[in-house]
Amino acid sequence: MILDLPLCANNSKQTSNLIVFGSIFIVNRLLDCSAALNRLVTSGAPAIVEHRAAVATSAVSSASVVAECVQNFITAMDSLKLNIVAVDQVHPLLSDLSSFLNKLFILPADFEGKTKMREWLSRLSKMGAADKLTEQ
Predict the structure, then answer these.
(1) pLDDT score of 4
(2) Example GO molecular function term (predicted)?
């Protein structure tokens, strides 16, 4: 038997009736579904709705971080190709790239790109601002 019970977020009486009906149904059928009952009573939304929203949010944020990494990488490479080699000009570009690489949680902590960025930032911070990078 399928019941057609419209659920309206603005009508708390309908919502509370649905919760009472669901609770009675679970108790009468001797169902062991305490997690489902808890979700029905506390959040009022199926788990799949919440999980889909979380996945969509993380995918969007992950994609935007990847885009920022690519943008910062291209900017750093272009600056080197244009012979912009002063430490005070290169350090901020690599620092931005490093910060976005660290925000990208799909990469492991020991990812080679992250470790190389840390090494280069360490080297650059030991140099003077007026120093220039050379081919060596």
Answers:
(1) 43
(2) protein-containing complex binding
